[in-house]
Write a structure and sequence with these properties.
Layout lengths: L2 H11 L3 H11 L10 H11 L5 H11 L11 H15 L12 H11 L2 H5 L3 H11 L7 H7 L8 H12 L4 H8 L3 H17 L4
Helix pairs in contact: 1-4, 2-5, 10-12
Amino acid sequence: MDVTALVLLHATCCINKSQREIFDSVFQHYVVGDEGGFYRKALDLVVGNGTMPPVAMAIVYGILFPASHFDEEDDLEMMLALSVALLVKNVRGDVIKRQRLNWHSHVKSLKHQGLFQINYRMSFSAFSKLLNLLREDLRVDAKKSRNRTSNQDPIGPDMILYCTLHYLSGGSYLDVMIHTGISRVAFYSCVYWGMDAICKCPDL
C-alpha cells in the first residue's frame, strides 16, 4: 500500500482518539523508518493546529517515508485495509455529556413564581391532562437510550411534550438546547415524536 494514501486515509477518516489508535495498531508498523509513528504523530499536531492541510501532510510524509513492508502480491494488505475501514466506521465519536434539565425542579420553580402558564401558554393542570393522554405514545426505551448516550437518563414524556409545544408556538431549538441540555437532533426527534402522538390521539 502507498504510504501517502495510507496517511491520507488516517488523517481524513480517523476523527477521534479510539479510531486513531485502532488504525495505528494495524498499519503504522508497516511504514519503513517510522514504525513507531513518532514523525507521523508530530505531523498530526501540525495538521491539528491548522498549519497544514491533511493532503499536504500526507504528501510530505510519503516523501519522507516512501517505503513500506507491504508485499504487493499478498492479500493481507487488502484484508487489513478492509478490517481497519470497518473498525473505524464502527467506533463512535466521543459522546458529549450535557447537563439535563431536572423537569420536576423546573416545574416546581415555575409554579412557585406563577410563571408556568406564561411559559407554556396553558395551565399546569391542562399540561398534565395533555401529558396523560399522550404518555403511552411518548414512552422511551430506557435501555436503548442509555446505550446511545453513554448511560445518561432518557428524555421523558414530559420533556418530549415540552419540546413539541415550544416548537408549535414558534420557539427556537436553540432556546431549548440551552435550557434543557439536549442536542439539536434530540430536540427534533422529540418534536416529530410529540406531533405524531398528538395526531394519533383519539381524544384530541
